[in-house]
Amino acid sequence: AQTIHQWPVAEIKAVGSPLSLGCTIKGKSSPNLYWYWQATGGTLQQLFYSITVGQVESVVQLNLSASRPKDDQFILSTEKLLLSHSGFYLCAWSLPGTGGGDTQYFGPGTRLLVL
Amino acid sequence: GDSVTQTEGLVTLTEGLPVMLNCTYQTIYSNPFLFWYVQHLNESPRLLLKSFTDNKRTEHQGFHATLHKSSSSFHLQKSSAQLSDSALYYCALRITGNYKYVFGAGTRLKVIA
Questions:
Q1: Which domain holds residue B35?
Q2: Domains (range + CATH), chain A
Q3: pLDDT (tens place) for every residue of chain A, 115 residues total
Q4: What is the number of domains present in chain B?
Q5: Cα–Cα 20 to 30 A to B4, which of A68, B33, B48, B99?
Q6: Do B50 and A103 touch (CB under 8 A)?
Q7: A61 CB near a chain B CB, below 8 Å?
């Protein structure tokens, strides 16, 4: 059974419209959670991370916000999409390891096209 | 700030030849964790290798890498490329005690028959 689910699988949205992407982790207690963005052919850019419910830290400012309303849920959103938001959004989880070497496990991702 | 530099762009190899993908990093911290992630077409990235220990070789699925803090390098190697190795490879850096990851630009490896 898949541990990490992301929804939706893909979206086509208009510039200026709102966006909400979700990620759910099943079977893992208190994981660290991460959001990444990958432009087509581009690198992985970490957007946010959360190590506990209700607390989210921003890594880069891309006019996006994130929330962790439950231990197993991570939400990425914006009120106004920009063309530059197009790309592949990946949620990842890890369990705290020793010395910072915890492996990140990536979800299947959401493809977003902003027109 | 912290950064990771990889072999740029596309590396094309004939099956059976050795693989060497370069990764160097910059950080002011002395205890970085280095990772190699692999992303096959239309898939998500998955961990290939990771290391924290200086001068210790780490191996997985035929690939190996050694973290050299003296040269700030973590090059990925394999003795013999296979067609199934064709993928995008990312080198990444994390500072111990920090939850921020810095990924390199990625190197696309294409193995041809």
A1: 3-112
A2: 4-95+107-114 (2.60.40.10)
A3: 558 999 999 999 999 999 999 999 998 888 999 999 998 878 999 999 999 999 999 999 889 999 999 999 999 999 999 999 999 999 999 987 655 668 899 999 999 999 9
A4: 1
A5: A68
A6: yes
A7: no
